[in-house]
């Protein structure tokens, strides 16, 4: 059953699909990452977020080094089948810079950045 779903995903030319991680309670968007076929399969099987690191060219189990894990409660796919939405329970910061969300900077119309959050301890 999982294989049939994985076959239906519209992977890009590098075999990747974008994934948005969203807090299941608040609806806050926490991060965006990439998944390949193996990372999506593992995420579905294990119930914990596994992504594909383009910079390291390997699987990335969220929280293995930081302890800031993501328990996946639901996976949805968009109408074009080229983007995933993971509803998660976040432990600690989602952002590698220590913020709860990777979207911790607002951009003004003039292009100026302002932090809208504080770092998670």
Any key phrases for this structure?
121 residues, mainly beta, four-stranded mixed beta sheet, two-stranded antiparallel ribbon, 2 helices, 8 strands, 14% helix, globular
Low-pLDDT sequence parts: none
Class inferred from helices and paired strands? mainly beta
DSSP strand count = 8
In DSSP terms (H or I, runs of 4 or more residues), the helix count works out at: 2
Q: Tell me, what's the shape?
A: globular
- The strand order across the widest sheet is 2-1-6-5
Mean pLDDT: 96
Alpha-carbon distance between the two ends: 40 Å
Provide the succession of SSEs: HEEHEEEEEE
Would you write up a description of this structure?
The chain is mainly beta and 121 residues long. The protein has two helices and eight strands; from the N terminus they run αββαββββββ. The protein has a four-stranded mixed β-sheet with strand order 2-1-6-5, covered by helices on one side. The protein has a two-stranded antiparallel ribbon with strand order 3-4. The chain has a two-stranded antiparallel sheet with strand order 7-8. Strand 5 and strand 6 form a beta hairpin. The longest helix has 10 residues. It is globular. It starts with a helix and ends in a 6-residue tail after the last strand.
Map the helices and strands.
Layout: H1 2-8, E1 17-23, E2 29-35, H2 37-46, E3 50-53, E4 58-61, E5 70-77, E6 83-90, E7 105-107, E8 113-115
